[in-house]
Structures are given as structure tokens and as C-alpha cells.
């Protein structure tokens, strides 16, 4: 279905942009780079019936705007529209994953970035708000909740990985994609991040040493060198399988094979 960004920009206060460039699309949203005078913005448009997702992400970004956690500013939002849309500051940089895989990146740079990656997640997990009311339900929808995981409710990103973190000049400048954010036991967030790192597609094993070092440095930055318990790891594998199994034949995730999905389901 064709979506014209010109339908959304006037409602967001940008009636006559200098240029609009499609950047990427996903399963639930589209993104454009919008230039207006000296300013550059990101226009994000979600699919129909995604109002709750839009409200969550906008709430999260606005609540974190004046904190140490780097996030793009939200300039305008039309959350209640049939297709929710919001205008954010454009973040110059590239995903942390790209820098980690860059042959020009030194080991010192990679390790420093992953330590910072862990430190920022620890800051996220130390927060107690904003108020969100579906933490246990969201966690249960992705897998069986861990019995006894009833510690103080902290902020969880639940999709915190190197593709959702932007870097520039070898510094982390933004944490993106807060659509899964909720409140709960931080061990869920740590387990989900570790599962994403540990289960990256690596059919020939060439990434294994890099991933092992990345996980160790992330844990060090977080301030806890021990892995999450097996019950949280089991939940994280089930959560990933729940997200990916419906996309097994999707060309957009061509790396997802039956063998890799089986590995995800066996993750402990």
C-alpha cells in the first residue's frame, strides 16, 4: 500500500518541506528524512491500529528527553489518527552494529562502545517510570513469565540491541525503537539483550569470538558480569521465537532458516 508522507506533514506542522526522502520500511512502520529550512527530522508513520504503540513510544521519548539516556526529541505527534505519525529529530550516525562489524574499527573502539552500551542499559533499568500498565501482560504474551520475578518494577526497553542504538564519532548518540518498553524485572531486559547478541546469525562461526567479547564488555558496562539465570534465558528464547516464527518465509528476514529458528527455541 502506497503511503504519501505529504498527507501527514501538515498535521505535524511541516506544510512545505524542502525535501522528503524515504529511508526504510518495516513490518509496522515507514520512515522518511524530512528537511525543512536548516532542520532535519525523521517522520515515522505506523500501520493502522497501531495507536497504542505510537502512544507508548512517544510517551517514552518525551519522558526521557531531559535525562542522561540519549533519545531523539519528539517535535509533533498525531497519535489518534488511523495511521499514527510522529516527527522526531533526525539522528546523524549509524547503528552500533555497523560500527562493530566495521573492519576499520579497532578492538579498543569496539570494547569501549559495548561497555557504554551496557552502561546506558543499566541507566534505563534503574528508572522507575513513566507509568505503564501492561508490563506483566506484555511479558506473558512473549513467553511464560519467570516464577518469583517480582522485584521492583523498573523501566525495560525489551528491544535493546546494536541495531537500535546509534553511534557517531564512536559515541552512542541515541537509543531508538521504544515500542516494547514497559515496567518489570530488569532481568527480562538483560536476558532479551543477551539472547539477541548470542543468537545473531553466524552460520560459519566467524562472528563467534567478536560476539563473545561484545557480551563480556556489555556485561561489564552494565555492572553485572554474571549471565541472567536459565529461566530468564528460556523466556528470552521463547520471546524471540514468538516474534520471528511468523516471519519464517518473509524475504525481509532471509537469514531466518528453520535451523536457526530451532536454535532460538532451544536457547537456555
Automatic annotation (TrEMBL):
Residues covered by the Protein kinase domain: 17-268
Name the UniProt record assigns to this protein: Aminoglycoside phosphotransferase (APT) family kinase protein
Keywords from the UniProt entry: Kinase, Transferase
A Pfam entry, by short name: APH
Molecular function GO terms recorded: ATP binding; protein kinase activity
PROSITE patterns assigned to the protein according to its UniProt record, in alphabetical order: PROTEIN_KINASE_DOM
UniProt cross-references to SUPFAM superfamilies, sorted A to Z: Protein kinase-like (PK-like)
Organism: Microlunatus parietis
